[in-house]
């Protein structure tokens, strides 16, 4: 059965079908081929999507779109440029820092690239940066969208692995910061010999104060959202709803950039994005159920353990597996495919599931900026008007530092677990 379902899935992927269709269609055909009852199909789909925690996904998607319409991303960019724009490579640092802030609002990598790319890539080009390099930087900085909390991918992992989403959010903070710092270091090294980059005049104290005041409400967004979760005031799902309400309040009454006519487009965009994610979740949940109920996942897990019992080697193999998967399928689909297979292995090896959730997510995040199907690369190409081959060549140096951070987070779990343990979780 395993050969049939995976064979069909790969066949449909090669044919160019959407990943959600590949997952659902391969599962249904396999069930029919093995005379499994299809009466359970609706209940499987419902049980996979009808979970309270998954309500956080449409709310975080809505919040990210609202923040974009409210002008928060633009103000964050102005704020960061005012403080570090006079430094050589300052715009590169601005790109990474603002991406981290926006990641803490939207929870999505592609949303981060789509919101910040149209502003930052032209600005870097005008300042003398290579256009392909700038697009590669924003694509890789967008990876933080699913590492730094709140993260849609961490929500899905928490549901699948039955791990506290609050713990996952807290655990993702330090790895996300290290990931961003590594990108900044690589940017500084790459641009160290570029003498033709233009820099801004150092801003006055008054200009810095004005930029800080203007960006205050945007800077407060992640503090309110994440602070509410960490202090136990709201659940992650409630925090997602709070983020959407907060964004509307800021956009309508503070910045006054969201008008009544914008509501329709905001909610239509949010509905389409949310429906796309949930359609993947629905089909992937059927695929995941088939792997688990038929014993395929257990057999594959036993084969991995039989191959070697060395924890270091198995974790390396898991990393390679997830990195390759992330190059071809979206993060949500990859989790539904591999988590049922890997959970038995992780339990045998006594791997902390919170730490695993972070480095698994980081694997899939790196895949989002890796050819041939890295979604962040395609978004960056569209907003920057550069070719895939050009951006792919430039992204290799960022891939290198990303892999170094990945290995650190994989083999030093305390990087992820330090904050949750310090907070008594």
Question: How does this structure look, described?
Answer:
The chain has 425 residues and is mainly α. The protein has one domain (53-281, 291-422). It is 77% helix and 0% strand. The two termini are 40 Å apart.
**How would you sum up the global shape?**
globular
- Give the N-terminus to C-terminus distance in angstroms: 40 Å
Total DSSP E strands:
0
Low-confidence stretches: none
Class based on secondary structure composition and strand pairing: mainly alpha
Largest sheet: none
Overview in brief:
This protein has 425 residues and is mostly helical. The protein has 22 helices and no strands.
Task: List the topology elements.
Blueprint: H1 2-14, H2 19-33, H3 41-49, H4 56-69, H5 72-84, H6 90-106, H7 109-126, H8 131-141, H9 152-161, H10 165-171, H11 173-190, H12 205-230, H13 236-254, H14 262-293, H15 296-307, H16 311-328, H17 331-349, H18 353-367, H19 375-384, H20 388-394, H21 396-411, H22 414-422
Helix pairs in contact: 1-2, 2-14, 3-14, 4-13, 4-14, 5-6, 5-12, 6-7, 6-8, 6-11, 6-12, 7-8, 7-19, 8-19, 8-20, 9-17, 9-18, 10-22, 11-21, 12-13, 14-17, 15-17, 16-17, 16-18, 17-18, 18-21
Features:
425 residues, mainly alpha, 22 helices
